[in-house]
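To: structure subgroup
Subject: Chain for Friday's discussion

All,

I'm putting the inputs and outputs inline so they're searchable in the archive.
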Amino acid sequence: MGDSIEQAGWLRESVGVRALDAAILRIVGPDRWTWLQGQVTNDVHAIGPGQSTYTFVVDVRGKILADAFVLGRE
């Protein structure tokens, strides 16, 4: 497949496949929610036990580094 238009057409007509890198992090400590709030785009303080939210992990400039689900635990 030569050019990007041909590649885009192929993706529309077939299946696009992307490798997924996944990890599970457990963040503990009395300031875990405050720390996490500074790392992601959604309000994690609003998450209750058993609830989750989809968010982006960002750097200090707000550049998106990854997407993530945050799960509230007791």
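Points worth raising on Friday:
The beta strands are 52-58, 64-71.
The two ends are 51 Å apart (CA to CA).

D.
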